[in-house]
Design goal:
Immunoglobulin-like, Jelly Rolls, 2 helices
Amino acid sequence: MKKYIILPLLCIGLYCCKEDSVQPLNKDQAPGPVTNVRAESIAGGANITYSRPNDKDLLYIKAVYSIRPGVEREVKASYYQHMLTINGFPDTLEYPVKLYAVSRGENMSEPVTISVKPLTPPVKEVFRQLTLAATFGGVRVNFVNNSEADVVITVLAADSTNDLVPAETFYTKRKAGTFAARGFNTTKRKFAAFVRDRWNNHSDTLYAELSPLFEQKLEKSKFKEVDLPTDTYAGHISSKIPYLWDDKLGNAGTSIFHTKPGSGLPQWFTIDMGVTATLSRFKLHHRDGSTADGPYTGGDPKVYEIWGSNNPSSDGSWDNWVLLSGFESVKPSGTPDGTITTEDKQFATVDGEDFDFPPDVPPVRYLRFKTIKVWGALDHMYIAELTFWGNVK
C-alpha cells in the first residue's frame, strides 16, 4: 500500500511574502476644465455652451446648480456635445452654476463657475395671463402657455366652511386652452387657481368670487334612438346607439357605440332627448383602448358638429335642423399624433372631454351628431359615452 506524505508549500526567498494591493481597472486622471463658457438665458433656465478639454478619457460634462435652498440639480451632456440646457429656476434672479468635465473613471475636473440669470419661468408667465370666469355649474379657466411647458393648473373652491380645497387639477403643455371645474350650484363662492411646474415651483394664487350659471344634467333614461332615412351610421357587430347613454365606460363592445368599418365619413346619428332643453354643455368620454383603437387615435372623433331640431323631417333631410355648434377634440399634452400621455388618457376616458354650447343656442329636443373627421385614417368612429347639461323647458 502506497503512503502519501503532504508537505506544506514553502515560500522561497521573499517572492511569496509580498503584500498584494488592489489597483483600479481605470487609471485615468481628472480632465482639464471646460473653457470659453457662455450662457444664454431662456425661460426658467439657460443654454450653456463651452469648449471641451482635449482629453481621451473625457466621458461627459456636468452642470451642478440649486434651484432653491436644499434642492440641487445635475444636468449632463455627452463628450461630443458643446452645449447643455439647465432649467427649473423659479424666478429671474442670478444663480451660480458649476461646470465639471468628468472622465470615464468618474474623476472630475476643477469646477468652472458661471452666473446665469433666467428669463421669466413658464410657471409665472402662465399665471400672468390666467383668468377665471363663471360658467355653467362652476368656473372656467383660460390660460396661455407660450413656451408650451409642462405645467399643472390647480383650481380651488370654497367648501361649506369657506375653506379653499382642490376642485380640479389640469395637466397641459398646450400653447393655450381652457378648462372648467364644475359641480357647483349658483351660490356665489370664492374660487382660486395657481400654476405648478415639474420642479414643484409654484406661482402666486389668483382669486375670484363667482356665481356659477344654472344648469341641470339631462336624464339619460329619457333618451331614445331615432332612425331617420338619411342617417349614415351602421352599428358594428352588436354595438348599438343606446350604449352612448348607459353610463358605462371602457372598450368592451357592451359599453361603447362603434360604427361599422367601411361606413364612411362624414356620418351622423339622431337622438331624441325626451325633453326640450336649452343646452349649456356636453361631455364626451373617449373609448379606453390601445394605442391603435383608444383615445386620440383610430376612429376617435376629432372634428364633429351637433345639430338640433324640434320637428325633424320624416324623410331625414336637414331642412328643419339648425347647427348648434362645431367642435374639435384637442389632446391636452399637445404631443405629436401617436403619442398619448397618462394625463391624456385620464382626461379622455375617465374625466371626459367637456365642450360648451354657444350661449344663444335655441331650445331643442332632437340632436344629430355628425362626425366629420376622426383622429386616425379610418372611415368609422366610436364613442364610449355622451352626457348633456342644460335648462329644461
